[in-house]
Design a protein that fits this description.
This protein has helices spanning about 10-15, 65, 135-140, 150-160, 190-195, 220-225, 265-275, 285-295, 390-410, and strands spanning about 20, 30-35, 40-45, 50-55, 75-80, 85, 90, 115, 120, 125, 130, 145, 165-170, 200-205, 210-215, 230-235, 250-255, 280-285, 300-315, 330-340, 350-355, 360-365, 375. It is an alpha/beta fold. The protein has two domains: about 20-185, Glucose Oxidase, domain 1 (3-Layer(bba) Sandwich), CATH 3.50.30.20; about 190-410, Rossmann fold. A ten-stranded mixed sheet has the order 14-16-15-17-18-23-22-21-19-20, with helices on both faces. The chain is globular.
């Protein structure tokens, strides 16, 4: 028999390797749902109460990226993972160059209205962490609650669908639950207009391929994924008249964004003209995918509770570039709306991906016969924190733009085409939203 010895490390010493979150306010907190349920816990964020749309995410990691994703605008984010905050929050600044876009996370600040966790880490430990989750929430004026049964909340949201809620903090916890009329529905507002850049700006201007980006609430990693493939990126407001300057670019990219795509019909109608008159590559993600679908003639609808998490399987129905038909890809998602699967599909279009769990449309593409090169996917190939099963779709898109540029450069120029004047852009920045 082999002797087995056990070395026990004192609890106080083992816990000493992490950094304490600092003093906690210990204010009472309660999450009220419009459907009548209430969950009592304690506050660890900003001492203010707030209304929002209560949703859940099944992501196991990357809580900082989720919280800074503009697609969570107006939402009270419930994390299904029990322990949140154990690796703290990093310093959120990077250089703006050919490799990065100015921020480490998905935007300059927290985008969700509030967060709900079962157990917030009292200590955090990571080589890049500069503050705790609690400190970050307080500094960003974002309320947060811990000590609640997130399993019960998630089951409610799974069964009854995404539900309006109110997170009450401190003295507000003793007040009665809000009446149905008092709940604020962020879906009634144009959230895209709140998070989109107000002025055009450029990234990596010396890149070898010029790509315009319509910003519906862009995650920084989308822009980073384009810049690192040596694209010269010009970011435009969501409702910018791209058709007036489209001759300056080799491709068009439509980003993710929050809320109801029907608030962005102005962009969809302008894109319809682009798709009819322009033959250069177009790629859309999440909200951008829905705008492409609406422009193509498909309908968008509100899902019961949406898909949010880093573990959503999708089945490829067609091959294109690095994507192979018949393969299942694991993806990251964050959306409440989707495109309806219609039969027949609009002429010149075909389904690209389907969700393996609920059979919702996860992607569309132009058919080879259409002569167009357009793709839209509901998931996030660029997901920071992973999975990265479909990250090469960015390479496919940028390579397609380069190939089209090369073909056009070899064609005889047309001198009598009237060109719009060049437009001015601001220095590179990732817009912060309050």
């Amino acid at each position: 028999m082999f002797a087995r010895s056990i070395i026990r490390i004192p609890t106080t010493l083992s816990r000493g390797f992490a950094t304490h979150t600092g003093p906690n306010s210990a204010l009472p907190a309660v999450l009220h749902l419009k459907t009548g349920q209430s969950f009592h816990g304690r506050s660890f964020g900003a001492p203010k109460s707030i209304f929002g749309e209560t949703v859940f995410s099944t992501s196991i990691t990357s809580y900082t990226e989720s919280m800074t994703d503009p697609s969570y605008r107006g939402q009270i984010l419930v994390f299904t993972t029990p322990l949140i905050g154990n690796y703290g929050v990093p310093f959120n600044k990077t250089p703006i160059d050919s490799q990065d876009v100015g921020v480490v996370l998905e935007s300059e600040g927290i985008q969700c209205s509030a967060i709900v966790v079962a157990d917030v880490a009292e200590k955090f430990s990571h080589h890049s962490a500069v503050e705790s989750l609690a400190s970050w929430c307080r500094r960003s004026n974002v309320p947060a609650i811990t000590g609640v049964d997130t399993r019960a909340i998630t089951r409610l949201l799974r069964d009854q669908g995404t539900t309006l809620g109110r997170l009450a903090i401190g003295a507000d916890t003793s007040a009665p639950s809000p009446t149905a009329e008092q709940y604020w529905d962020p879906a009634a507002e144009n959230l895209v207009d709140q998070v989109s850049t107000k002025v055009p700006y450029q990234l990596n201007p010396t890149g070898d391929t010029k790509i315009a980006v319509l910003d519906f609430g862009a995650k920084a990693n989308i822009l980073r994924s384009l810049v690192r493939r040596n694209a010269a990126v010009t970011v435009l407001p969501w409702n910018y008249d791209f058709n007036s300057i489209r001759h300056q670019f080799d491709g068009l990219f439509l980003t993710n964004g929050p809320g109801d795509p029907l608030h962005c019909m102005e962009a969809a109608l302008k894109l319809r003209r682009t798709l009819q008159e322009w033959d250069k590559p177009v790629f859309g993600i999440c909200m951008g995918h829905q705008i492409i679908g609406i422009a193509a003639g498909l309908e968008a609808y509100r899902m019961t509770f949406g898909n949010r998490g880093h573990n959503q399987p999708v089945l490829a129905l067609a091959s294109s570039g690095s994507v192979k038909a018949g393969r299942v890809y694991v993806t990251s998602q964050n959306h409440q709306y989707a495109l309806k699967l219609s039969d027949p599909f609009p002429e010149g279009w075909e389904p690209f991906f389907i969700n393996c769990n609920d059979s919702s449309v996860e992607g569309i593409k132009s058919t080879p016969e259409s002569g167009k090169r357009v793709w839209g996917v509901q998931f996030h190939p660029e997901s920071a924190g992973g999975p990265l099963d479909t990250i090469e779709m960015f390479t496919d898109f940028v390579d397609e733009c380069r190939a089209h540029r090369l073909v056009n450069s070899q064609a005889k120029p047309v001198d009598n085409v009237m060109r719009a004047p060049k437009f001015t852009v601001e220095p590179a920045c990732i817009a912060a939203t309050a």
